[in-house]
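ok, trying the design again with the full structure, not the truncated one.
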């Protein structure tokens, strides 16, 4: 009996060593010739890490995953073959390049079957026009010309450009494995050191996002030298207890937008004139309120003349409050009045912001804009370890039904909390958490669903 146990234990250890070695080999291979040498911002999606997390979650919640698997199986039967034709590596890298705009992203993946890949690109990405190049590779471009793919029997190179930039030269490099970032590059080392399901690195920005049961956590460092962050964080102690959104930023932003003209429609502001009053900003969203607005309709009188008639109409709007720590609130108000942003009735110009009526008020060194007339507020400052803070009750915001475009993206989310601290004069630290509806199911599973 002891001999059988020893043999079983030895086999188990060998299996564990084999699995560990295989995963380490996949990790090593995933970094080989996957990133262009001119990469700027690099995102790393750790697929093996996600697989480990999802496997553990499956053991805890088999019913959920088996149900979803049946749904996926039914969907795939309706769509046809579910094979992607891609051999998924341990890590996927998506990045921008110095030579292209920040809105153009590249990715290189290994190909398992080029025929299955073509069918997958047609089915999922709606690519129907493919052309063969002189080198034997195949290219395809989406109808909106934002997505470009190029593949051969070994690799798939993809580029998505919001500006519809020409990316074929880069895709050729990726397929030919030219101008690739060597494994010895410092960026590769940083990417290897950053642990997270999703991580990123560029210059002085780095961070990670991890998916756990019922929530996702973010941890990031970023530069703050141009933000004008004070040594001591503070916020205005006037947020309502029932507010669905609380956001504040204690920074003057002079290093970012100084010497610039800010133009919107027929309105223009000079950033230097604006920023000399600026130092603190807070935004708050409360429950819906009712505004009375005048609506002009046209009717015909007894002489068949078209006459304008003004009638009062009640409209449900969100209770929004934006307060600005100005140092000289009266001076800021006068400047905005001179620029016709705020009219003679101390309201935000409807031509500038037509959605709701927005009223202004001044107290001490603060200017407030609010959708509620004569909305009181406190200008008292309270110390805080954070220079930035955001908290949102996303479930309540969805129930308000005032932001249909935003609500469509809030799906499985219930609550968001972000806070940023000052590490030193150059660097800041951002931490945050977003909660999901199902507390016992991994957040990534809920996100992809």
């Amino acid at each position: 009996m002891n001999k059988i146990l020893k043999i079983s234990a030895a086999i188990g250890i060998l299996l564990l060593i084999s699995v560990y070695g295989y995963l380490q080999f996949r990790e090593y291979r995933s970094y080989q010739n996957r990133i262009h040498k001119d990469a700027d911002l690099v995102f790393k999606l750790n697929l093996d890490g996600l697989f480990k997390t999802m496997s553990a979650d499956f053991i805890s919640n088999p019913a959920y995953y088996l149900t979803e698997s049946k749904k996926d199986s039914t969907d795939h039967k309706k769509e046809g073959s579910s094979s992607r034709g891609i051999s998924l590596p341990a890590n996927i890298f998506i990045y921008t390049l110095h030579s292209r705009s920040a809105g153009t992203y590249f990715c290189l993946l290994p190909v398992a079957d080029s025929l299955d890949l073509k069918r997958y690109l047609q089915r999922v990405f709606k690519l129907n026009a493919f052309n063969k190049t002189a080198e034997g590779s195949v290219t395809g471009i989406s109808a909106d010309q934002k997505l470009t793919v190029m593949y051969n029997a070994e690799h798939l190179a993809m580029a998505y450009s919001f500006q519809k930039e020409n990316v074929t030269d880069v895709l050729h490099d990726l397929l030919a494995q030219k101008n690739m970032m060597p494994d010895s590059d410092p960026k590769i080392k940083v990417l290897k050191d950053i642990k997270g399901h999703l991580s990123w690195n560029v210059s002085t920005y780095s961070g990670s996002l991890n998916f756990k049961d019922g929530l996702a956590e973010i941890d990031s460092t970023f530069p703050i030298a141009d933000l004008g962050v004070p040594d001591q964080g503070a916020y205005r102690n006037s947020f309502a207890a029932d507010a669905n959104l609380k956001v504040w930023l204690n920074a003057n932003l002079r290093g970012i937008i100084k010497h610039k003209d800010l133009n919107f429609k027929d309105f223009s502001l000079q950033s230097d004139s604006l920023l000399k009053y600026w130092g603190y900003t807070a935004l708050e969203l409360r429950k819906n309120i009712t505004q009375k607005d005048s609506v002009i309709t046209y009717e015909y009188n007894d002489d068949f003349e078209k006459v304008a008639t003004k009638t009062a109409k009640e409209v449900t709007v969100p209770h929004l409050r934006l307060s600005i720590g100005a140092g000289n609130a009266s001076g800021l108000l006068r400047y905005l009045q001179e620029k016709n942003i705020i009219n003679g009735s101390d309201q935000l110009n409807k031509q500038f912001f037509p959605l709701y009526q927005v009223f202004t008020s001044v107290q001490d060194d603060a200017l407030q804009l609010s959708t509620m007339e004569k909305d009181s507020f406190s200008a008292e400052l309270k110390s805080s370890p954070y220079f930035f803070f955001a908290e949102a009750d996303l479930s309540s915001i969805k129930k308000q039904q005032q932001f249909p475009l935003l609500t469509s993206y809030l799906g499985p989310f219930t609550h968001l909390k972000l806070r940023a601290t000052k590490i030193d004069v150059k660097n800041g630290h951002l931490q945050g958490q977003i909660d999901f509806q199902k507390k016992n199911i991994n957040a990534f599973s809920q996100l992809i669903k």
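Keeping the full-length input from now on. The chain is about 30% helix and 35% strand.
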